[in-house]
Structures are given as structure tokens and as C-alpha cells.
Amino acid sequence: MGRPAMNFEGSATAITQNRRASVNYVKEMRANVGVSEETRIRNAFETLDGNDDGFVEAKDLQAILLRFGYKPKKITSMGNSECEELIWTVDDSMNGALSWDDFKSWYQRCKENEVLQEPEVLFTAVEFLMYDISRDGTVDFEECMELLFRR
Prior knowledge:
Helix content is 60%, strand content 0%. It is mainly alpha-helical.
């Protein structure tokens, strides 16, 4: 039977409505881009901080990475877990956990770093968490569009 036929007037109206909806959607997305990067970084930090103690520890990072389907190495060539090494690499205060200040300064270094000396696995996880606004473990269409408008 096929699809029902649509006359020119109906087609033009549908196209106009879709175009208006798209323009409105773009305007709405641009308006919502106002959520500050620091707020997004803070949300990512709070999501990583599994026990709400104000620090991201290796076990917190491991839980998130496993949730994303990434299996960190249990023992590396240095005798530590991969998550312990990631934390150690980023930990400015050298206390074995990332405070909010450690986390924020590390993120800034990553953004400015063109040589990619910072841990890419951690940076990718944090970027994902920053745009998973609903915190449901996925970046849906709206969240993806916001990411594209921010870049």
C-alpha cells in the first residue's frame, strides 16, 4: 500500500513546521549551554566520589570505569592497580586521593595539554560524566547536542 500521499501544501507545511521546530531547538540548546563548565566538572567530581567523602579514590574511579565497561588492570608493571596509578599521576597533594582542588587543577591541565601527558582514560571518563547530565550512564541526543554546541 505504501505511504499515504501528501499534497504540496501539506508537504510545505510539514517542512516549515520541522524547520521552525529545529530553529527553536537550536535556540533552546544555545540557551542551556549556560551551565558553567565548573558546574559540570563539579558534577563529574561528585559522581566519581562514590562515598561522598570529598575525595576521589582509586576504588571510586574503578567503580565508574567498570560501569562504563572498561576493565582497569589489577596489577601494573609498578605493582599497583591501574586506578591507583591514575590517581597517583593526578594527585597534586600526594595523599592517595583527589580533592576537589586536585581534580579541578588536573582538568584544566588536561584541557591545555596538547602533548597528551595526562591520563587519557581518566579524562575521557570525566568528559563523559560532564555531559551525562541525567547521570543515567548514557549521553542521549539532547546531551550530545549540548556537547556539540559547547565545542
